Amino acid sequence: MDLRAALADRRLVAIVRGSDPDAALRTVLALAEEGIDLIEVSLSGADALGVIARTAAELGPDRPIGAGTVLTADDAHASRDAGATFAVTPGLGAGSVTARDLGLPVLAGVMTPTEIIAARAQHTDALKLFPAGDIGGPAYLKALRAPFPDAVFVPVGGVDLDAARAYLAAGATAVGVGSPLVADAADGGSLAALRERARAFRATVEEASA
To answer: Which residues are registered as beta bridge partners of 126?
Structure first.
């Protein structure tokens, strides 16, 4: 898949991390039904690889599914084998390098200009600005865009509706959203409430793209 183009088009990545694999799968499918096309299943959740494999089987080969928290070479191999079509990492390391070597597009975690330069040297596809809520907010992103105007930045971590709006206005290509969107749905919580939040986030990113 062309991850850069998908991020620029959809502008939202949903992050699913749950303690109940069946609930996590229901969460992913509900998000997909609500039109959120970029979904990451974090490997730190229960049976995440199984959730990825079941999602790939349910949605088919034309719908992307990401593996998150890809830390090691083994994580990258297992994610690819489970059917993940892109990888997301919290930082740079064996997981990001191996995923790239396996042909998976990579959204790699960075915080500083030095890490951004290192990520670009690894030919990562996009930059996960993480943890976004703790590093200066949209003003920090705006400052980074001066030396890296063509970088694909995706702030992740504590991004609620207001922060999503502000980051997109500051030049983020997309935003990654976990708890403010998913909440307890992947642990067995309300899918109806999840769908309402999904619609609100979709409306926010669509408004920012208008």
So the answer is: 107
The answer to whether residues 108 and 92 touch, using CB atoms and an 8 Å cutoff, is yes
Instruction: Say if residues 126 and 4 touch (Cβ distance below 8 Å).
Output: yes
Known active-site residue 128: yes
Dihedral sign of CA atoms 203, 185, 166, 86 in order: negative
Sheet holding 175-177, edge to edge: 153-155, 126-129, 106-110, 86-89, 66-68, 39-42, 12-16, 175-177
Residue 164 structure tokens: 């999503």
Q: Measuring CA to CA, which residue among 88, 99, 94 is closest to residue 16? A: 88
pLDDT, one tens digit per residue, over 43-68 is: 999 999 999 999 999 999 899 999 99
**What's the whole-model pTM score?**
0.96
Report the amino acid identity of residue 207.
E
State how far the Cα of 89 lies from the Cα of 69, in Å rounded to an integer: 5
Q: What pLDDT is stored for residue 23 in this prediction?
A: 98
Write down the number of H helices and E strands in the chain.
10, 8
Structure tokens at 150: 């063509």
Among the options 58, 128, 196, 207, which is catalytic? 128
CA distances from 71 to 92, 95, 208 (A): 8, 4, 32
CB 186 within 8 A of CB 18: yes
**From the candidates 33, 40, 115, 142, which is the catalytic residue?**
40
Q: What is the pLDDT of residues 54-108, one digit of tens each?
A: 999 999 989 999 999 999 999 999 999 999 999 999 999 999 999 999 999 999 9
